[in-house]
Amino acid sequence: MLTGDRPTGPLHLGHYAGSLRTRVALQNVHDQTILIADLQALTDNSGRPLDVRRNVLEVALDYLAVGIDPSVTTIALQSAIPELSELTLLYLDLVTLARLERNPTVRSEIELRGFDRDIPAGFLAYPVSQAADITGFRATLVPVGEDQLPMIEQTNEIVRRLASLAGHEVVPECRALLSTTPRLPGVDGRKASKSLGNAIALSASPDEIRDKVHAMFTDPAHVRVSDPGRVEGNVVFAYLDAFDSRHGEVENLKQQYRNGGLGDVALKRRLDEVLQALLEPIRARRALLAGDPGAVLAIIRSGSRRARSGAASVLSDVRDVFCLNDFG
Ligand code: TRP
Fold this sequence. Notes:
- The chain is mainly α.
- It contains 14 helices and 5 strands.
- It has 2 domains: 218 residues, 3-Layer(aba) Sandwich (Rossmann fold); 82 residues, Tyrosyl-Transfer RNA Synthetase (Orthogonal Bundle).
- Strands 1-2-3 form a 3-stranded parallel sheet. The protein has a two-stranded parallel sheet with strand order 4-5.
- The chain is elongated and about 80 Å long.
- The chain starts with a strand and ends in a 7-residue tail after the last helix.
- Tryptophan (TRP) binds next to strand 1, helix 8 and strand 4.
């Protein structure tokens, strides 16, 4: 099982609900690798290498703080595994430019970033590098969100083309393990994003959490406590559904809110308590680890070393297909 994250900023509650929680739960069941995809982050952040470098450590801290255990999960850094880059270069020969331009996720990202015609070539090709990530670990299971399905499809196309070239399977096909929790909205009800500042970071302080909960979008028509309120599209309920384990009580609150008689202030107070309780131990663990960056670097180094030996064996098999193994 392989997952990855671009180190472009601190991880937030959306990552926790959609993915991190699952990784913690599954790490004792599956052979799991988590890749910090710094090369992928650089494809659209080449002007900010120091930011990417800094965020590698932040993301690793987030992993460890939520309970990813480096003795069972391999935490690896993409740029520390050069075999992945050589795999990418070879896979690029199996993909057409037209195919790269058709990837719907990349298309919408290009639009979002306003690249217009000035698309960094590495950015257009990052799904190929992601195919190298996935196959470089012979991963068959990739827990991701829906936006990553086109990457899985493109990976399997490469896997099949490689097999037909070789006349036998070289690396296995993979499938996505889609998260069952719906995507967590930002506090304003829009898609959670770093640039909008509408997400709650796992490292948020108690005050930040309180302020963000206070600012959450509820139901603009729910003016007086006695007014009936809407639960659908209400951000507070989306977060309670994701993080309040007392599901029966949350259902009762929804009923009460719909009928009228439950105010936003009381509702937000409950969510604040739930999130403070969730994030307090994570923040404490994070602070402890942040005090020893050398230990975190050592974890990344040893994970990357372990990951490298697997990727080297895959690369050797792929070099064989291209008749490249005779010369060294
Ligand atoms: N593209 C993924 C994202 O934006 C990150 C990623 C890089 C990834 N390599 C991966 C995800 C390999 C799954 C498998 O979140």
